[in-house]
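Cross-check.
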Amino acid sequence: MRKNGMRARAACLAAAVALPMATPAQAMYSQNEAESVRKLDIMLMVSSLRCRFGPDDFQADYQRFSTQHLPTLNEAYRALHDILARTHGAKRATRMLDDISVSMANLYGQGHPWLGCAELKSVTRDLADKRQGDKLLVEANYLLAERRPAGTTLALRE
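Predicted model, tokenized:
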């Protein structure tokens, strides 16, 4: 009897420890954080398409970035969808995400406000080489700024 009680407690403890792993994606990101990571992905994708015919084509680098960070990118997308769905409903949340994608495509289809194709290629290659998905938020906030933050270089923030 005592062994069964110990097993039951061990099973409960194991389940309790596993709970944080099963936390919904929205708990990992705030709406602004999830949106920033999503926008970073869209900006890099649109920019890679825009730059594909010049000497600084970085579509292969973008594909490597996307593959490397797919779990993080998907988590941010799901988090943003879940957050928006709680407030606006699932159908409206999907439309809102589409609107974000279209607005980003329109914004960056004309070019990045302060980065050229060569710089975007370098940044995308550096991001593809990074393993930590949690660094994407820092990079997103930097790269999505309307102008280069004063006193910064293109070197990725640590």
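Residues 8-26 have pLDDT under 50 and may be disordered. DSSP finds seven helices and no strands in the chain. Passed to J.P. for a second look.
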